[in-house]
Fold these 2 entries.
Entry 1:
Amino acid sequence: MSLRRLPVLMVALLGFAVTSCDDDDDNTPTPPATSTQNIVQVAQANPDFTALVAAVTKADLATTLSGTGPFTVFAPTNAAFAKLPDPFKTATSIAAITDPTQIATLKDILLYHVLAGNKKAADLNTGPQTTLKAAGSTTNVINLTKTGSTITINGSSTVRTADVAASNGTIHAIDNVLIAGSSTSGPGNIVQVAQGNSDFATLVAAVTKADLGTTLSGAGPFTVFAPTNAAFTELPDPFKTATSIAAITDAAQIATLRNILLYHVLAGNKKAADFPSGPSAQLTAKPASATGVNDNTVYASKTGSAITLNGTTSVVTADVAASNGTIHAINKVLIPPTRKISEIVVAATTASPAQFTVLLAALQRTAAADLLKAADDASSNLTVFAPTDAAFQALLAQLGFTSLNQVPDTDLVNILKLHIVGSRAFSSDLTNGPVTTLGGPVTVGVSGTSVTVRGAGNGTNNANVVIANQLANNGVVHVIDRVLRP
């Protein structure tokens, strides 16, 4: 195959295959302690650059890159070259190339990895960088995206080891070979950017299995909350890994996966700065399961530059640019709610061990009918501090009762109202101070990830939130270990 066809082939490969690998598999080099060797010598001394050295030799660039420079080289590892078609996979196959056209094209490709000047990672910023490649029929500009310490090139390659020192410049090891023309005006589309980042390998497999690749490669624009590989490992089988997801054949599982993925997609291009401070509701691309059912909204909580989703998921890398939108990497997979608050309470009563049996009995009292109705209303938007059975037993003992039936209706309803807030508040939305419930104010205390709540009748005894942020389609439940008293 002629190397002249390589850019077209690489675009096709980006569209249909995952082209990234985990850090552990990439064998990226460790920077040497000294910089007495030039760029070529540093590469020659490192077994992870054998394919690159063979390519430099074949393209007759060794003398150039051994010169005074200085140069900055984005250096593909052997694993990066292994993703190319034959004969460009290995040092041996590259060394055997004799076609002058292939050699000339190889030289252009290599020069596309070289910048003039000595640029450490700290010197690189988001935006275009002109390489030593001649412009020709394809671009000679690479596009960098820098988010924190992460540097992505053309939306498809990531710097895995930065600042490998040489006497005539700096090497940055990368995980994909850069192909001029595969991204001529900036980063690739959302799918291509994800394919170029090894931390999104499982997400790419899920997008492929759910047949969403074409959609997310389209014009959009889209905002995607992108779970990392580690986020997927917290799910049950078969959704843990790229391999297990690729093996799914059950139509119902594929449909579930598709809905989960659409729950991570917003219409429009929303950078982190576009999210308002405090809580906000973000409508996703997931269709609602039924009219009036609110199971297609993600709830964002922004404090400073930190963004939390649905109370438990954090944006760990924001503003990863794509040609058709923005990716925000997140540390947990967002799961759409499937139950109302009332259904969460009822389901817990038959769990092992059972929970909320006393709370359910209290809500089922005739006097509390309106509260139970609100918890069962799909259009509600509530926060419920739900006391455990042990918490209710402790309350009965304090009151000198042996049964919930002994608690007068008025007292019981007033107690229950103190546990219900008329809006949705995740733990990330709560701050130190009063919160107004249906029964009056309670005092919230926040220390790190710990949350307490206290009614006026509790004195100095706080209730601890022992399980936070149980998402319902009509609100959120926080499990507490003490009953709040007016």
Entry 2:
Amino acid sequence: MGATRETGSDAPGEARFLARLALLAVLGSLLVLVLALGEGGLMVLGAGLLGVVLCAAGVWWFVAHRGLLRVIGALLVFLAPAGVVVLFAYQGLWLTALILVLCWGVALTCARAALRRSRPERPQVATAAARPARPVLIMNPKSGGGKVGRFGLVERAEELGARVILLDPGAPADVAELARRAVADGADLLGVAGGDGTQALVAAVAADHDLPFLVISAGTRNHLAMDLGLDRDDPSRCLDALTDGEELRIDLGDVSGRAFVNTVSFGVYADVVQRPEYRDDKAGTALSLMPDLLVGEGVRRLDSLVDGAPLADQQALLVSNNPYFSPDEISGTGRRPRLDDGELGVLGIRVEDAAQAADLAVRGSQSTGLTVLSAHRVEVTVSGTAEADGSPEAAEDAGTDGPPEVAENAGADGSAEEPGTSGAVEIPVAVDGEALRMPIPVVCTLRPGALRVLVPRDRPGVVAPPPAIDWRRILDLAFGRTVRTAPR
């Protein structure tokens, strides 16, 4: 990890002032509670906490069960917060509750601002890049609901001197092979307008030949583009890199020999995306399958070794190319502050009943149901499955109820997938959202700095995520004590 560095007495005055404001806001909320003890202050806390617990339990029952329990869960999700509001209004406690919410809002805002100013984010180093002479761009016209056509990406790229390979949605192609042929024909840059799954396949070819890689945000979610700071609303702006670009060196993930740029998912999510109907009805497919995947008989659990340390009996496991700032990546809203730290992010989830769901809602990352780690190597297997047993019975136990042809399906962006190893115990794996099956153990590693990414100089999406709240550091900042932090 290296030596720690010290800040504190020399911390900027603005950071110290904001830290003191944060502490004053916390004290203010405590004072409000003390003064309101006789007027329902404890009821505000108790009712608010009960509302969170009931809402979390409702979400669990809605997701993990069918029939009456699912109906009750749905009612709780809506009625619990509504009941809290009605109680506050009926008891005349709404003003106390509002002041408490405002105090905590001020405290959290000031605390994050103080931490950000005391420890500024180390910007990723960009280097000057020469204009490519023979860029080749692979574009999927179906990706992102037809963004390639809507934004005129083919015409714009050709105006800038790029050769465009337009995929045929009716004839799935091996995009990695197309990229290799382009390199053999003299391409000095490879780029993709498509989803993150296709981005990863072409990025691997670019990394193998040490060529610059261009990301064009024409996919549906564009997680890689978001973390690079690219404009996700107007993918044509990504093409500015061809004439006015700079280069970043970022890490490239590897899962059992296949590249990934964002995440590899195991367990519940990976099982769901295997189903062919998922593409057309994501919510309906997930709700239909979740009860069997979470609490049904013979539910599969995942075991893993995270840098050699065991992490057992997880329902879901997510491994990311560099850690996310917070577990929000589950919902697709998380961001990675950096893509060049040389570490995998690891998120394990195990929630088996409503009580554990409530614990997760109240305690967040401190809950026993959530494990957040970073690592250099993650090895994933299935709980209770003998690795050496390649029998059909073992393979069936390790798989899902989905159709066997899923292993050979084409990716969402038109890329052909390789079938799994015959006779081996396989598990569903979602690689950058693509549904695959891989023989266990599935090994995730990282290739530090393997990918040269060409980006525009003007990137409107570059935003440093707020730091995690550390009240010990806030106290140290406020009182001018030495703050010890790990190097970045």
